[in-house]
What we know:
The chain has 12 helices and 9 strands. By secondary structure, the protein is α+β, with helices and mostly antiparallel strands. Strands 4-3-9-8-7 form a 5-stranded antiparallel sheet. The model has no long low-confidence stretch (mean pLDDT 94). The structure holds 6-diazenyl-5-OXO-L-norleucine (DON).
Amino acid sequence: MATPVPGEQIKERLRALYSRCEVEDRDAVASYYRSGRGYYPPQEAGEESERFGICLGRRNGELFGIGDDEVAFPLQSLSKVFSYALALADWGRDHVLTRVGVEPSGDSFHSIVFDEANNRPFNPMVNAGALVTSDLVRGSSPEEKLERILTCLRLFAGNDELAVDRDTFRDEMRDADRNRAVAYLMRDRGMIEGDVEGILGLYLQQCSVHVTCRDLATMAATLANGCVNPVTGERVLPLPRVRDVLSVLHTCGMYDAAGQWAYDVGVPAKSGVSGGILAVVPGKGGIGVYSPGLDSHGNSARGIKVCHEMSENLGLHIFAAEAEDAMLGDATPNAAF
Length: 337
Ligand code: DON
């Protein structure tokens, strides 16, 4: 195992990475999203177009943040990672697989398509699958299930303050017709049962929890560290299920851009419509990026660029050799860093 590089070098590389990605590629940004307002074009964006933060969490518990790394934003689809992990811990992989698959759908996150052969959603990262996994979380009521999901999020982030932002939730619930349609269709087909509004409310409350890049980096570093939070030292979930979560993130986390992502960036990752990206470098650490400008797939355009740079020029790709790691290892970067 290579000697851990000094924190100063990581800070220096992070500063260089930040400045390489600071100027937003306007052509890459297709829209912005805000709960209650929905999607809106770049020309209507205000100061949110300048928002940009990165944080990197190492397995030894060190966090390196830069820019808007302490600005809070809604988790949105990033929350799906943790409700899936909790459902796996509650029921085990075999039972969860009877309710939701692990196949990339090749479609967008809110597409109304199902794995007809198995009468289930394709995977837990698309909205249909996430509605099923939220419902799978053990609890005698949506309230009890929400408490368990919040506890799980707080343990992953090492932040007891994480909570549902009521304004975000109100707005998400008001504009939830498509999710509602998917949920009622799934109940019609027996993929979920019971109180559809309760299940929808549970899912949209987890989407409405506000986090920062620092929280995301800690959550990602916890996944990279076998589900032991490197900052708090607490075990969050049983070990065997971590590989299941990371495998699904790798193949499905970036929706209909997952193939290109696995090829170009090559680390398990998840995006959210508020502009957050969480990326996991197994055994090494985690990355949290926040930049609200979205590309045509609904993923943060600057976030994608940061992760591309980390993979291409700093060797953070799961199939890269140790000798290529110039971010957490002592390799020389491929570009001027
Ligand atoms: O359920 C929804 O559609 C939103 N609350 C979350 C969607 C989202 O984050 C998609 N990710 N890129």
